[in-house]
Amino acid sequence: MNQVALITGGGGGIGGATARRMAAAGMTVVVSYYDRGATEKVRGQIAAAGGKAEALSVDVTQAREVKALVTEVAQRFGRVDVLANIAGGSFYTKRIEDFSWAEWKEVIDVNLKGTFLMCREVAPIMRQQKSGRILNTASNYGVTGSALRAPYAAAKAGIITFTRSLALELAADGIRVNTVAPGPTDTERVMEKETPEARRQRWHSLIPLGRTGKPEEIAELFYFLTTPESAAITGQTFHCNGGLI
Amino acid sequence: MRLKGKVAVITGGAQGLGRAIALGMARAGAKIVVADLQADKAEGVAQEARALGAEALALEVNVASEPAVQRLADETFKRFGRVDILVNDAGVYLKSPVVSKSEEEWERTLNINLGGNFLCARAFVPAMRRQKSGRIISIASSIAHTGAKEFADYAASKAAIIGFVKALARELGPDGITVNAICPGSANTDMPRRHRSEEEVMARLKATPLGHVLEPDDIAGSALFLASDAASYITGQAYNVNCGTYMI
Prior knowledge:
The complex is a heterodimer of chains A (245) and B (248). Chain A has 245 residues and is of the alpha/beta class. Chain A contains nine helices and seven strands, in the order βαβαβαβαβααβαααβ. In chain A, α2 links the parallel β2 (28-33) and β3 (52-57). Chain B has a single domain (7-241), classed as NAD(P)-binding Rossmann-like Domain (Rossmann fold, 3-Layer(aba) Sandwich), CATH 3.40.50. Chain B is built from eight helices and seven strands, in the order βαβαβαβαβααβααβ. In chain B, α1 (16-27) links the parallel β1 and β2. Classes of the chains: A alpha/beta (245), B alpha/beta (248).
């Protein structure tokens, strides 16, 4: 049967690579992102490679938009086999006293609340199917903490334990829920802020493999967690960071 | 054929998880070396692998013996010329309370379960370094995190494997070698049956959040992933495969 994967953050670096990986494996991929143009670009890449994809924009912090997105996916495809919550970001690097309440909420909402809203809408569909795989996205910072990224680290730590709770809640219905925690990854968004040389100098000595990660390497881990080879895995956090932690 | 042309050495490969990993890797195109104390059973697994079309070598090896591990490395290089994947699965699981555990029993567990990881890594790492590539996968256990009554030596050895794996990952990362552990929950093999009745074992195996009985092939699935090119950026990790019984 043709599997349907819904991917938030699908217009971004890791989300786009994951969308392409799932499509290459034969899944029908719904690429969701806040920015319509980026979503269309990934949809076009998948189509050009012979895959099946739809582009639908969503702001994952808005309950109404999330509900509309999932309703549309359910109507058009009749099922959701894989939900990958990849929308997120740290957005700010600054001291705690400089964070406004609005900025704090923005970071918590895009990462943690968005994951909750998506899961809340998709879980009943997977329950009816008696199958499904949910993949959430954390970060090494969700375990180690990060100076100047307090809300991001808090949100990512929250996602790790939200995942465990949801895994226990949905296990009896044959639904697996896991977290992927990428380390420093060369996405367009971070590469815009830093030269490759500055990035190399910052990370080289800290990462045993001596380099930052590629979005495609994170995508492989997301894909593995959708396959029957990972049938006995739920509630876990999978770091992919070259040995950083 | 994700492991086509790769050479994989699997210690403890004669039965249980090791056998499933060895045959899984053979199916994925690897040439395998099945190393085990039980020579007959190891040869049986090698024959199964050959029936799948893979090249396979069986060797009688005590992983706690320096000369035996050296011979394993020598025979591997003589037959296949290289090593790409080392799976450390050989282990013992001996039950007794700490207060009555003999020093011999303690040493046997630590020397085989943990010392075998050290000796095998030491024997195969130089070749991996020269190739600038390699994958080391150690089978730890959920008991490394949870402990287990009357298996204190086993729990200590498995927790130590995780520490060893993380240290070795840092040491070998610059040479493009990844080192990871898998922590299986209780699996449907002979091992738990040595200390519990069949009814008890099956009841425990089914009592997981997923309600899925953990089979050796479930562990092989993760081992194959970690051995493949898809896991090129994963090192120093201990991945839990336990049907949701705990989440650390």
